[in-house]
Amino acid sequence: MSTTSTLFTIRPWQDSDLPALLKHGNNPLIAQNMTDSFPHPYLESNGRMFIEFARSHEPYRLYAIEVEGEAAGGIGIHPQQDIQKKNAELGYWLSQQHWGKGIMAAAVRELVKKGFSDFDLNRIFARPFGNNRASQRVLEKAGFKLEAVITDGFFKNNEFVDEMIYAIRRSDL
Asked: What stretch of H or E contains 165?
């Protein structure tokens, strides 16, 4: 997949993206809203392992968001297993310097289309932190609906944070 808009391109991660991944990903404001598998500081070894992992799936599930000629964020779809096999979780992040430009909502819409096209899914969901209103707005702008709030569902940085569950269904498109 390589989807291009006037603001960004969604494309597979490349080994040459490592410097940009480290530049944009090594930000505590990004890490605070990600799972613990996205550490801060974000080291070269983390970036190398991530790019290798991102390139290991067919079809691809994890993509770079290229802005102004460099990988400035990431977006991915994670198909579930067993009785949740018709669902996939969506995850994303974007460099702080590109926040507020409408890039992420557009990228989410593009990956949702691709997710329903590439995988036998009925539902794509995302779980932003309750205190991350910007991420919740991204999902709302992309057509996701709030399904549930799990009070203190996450434990991040030594504190409990609400887990918001947003979803979109194939029939919503």
From this structure: strand 159-169
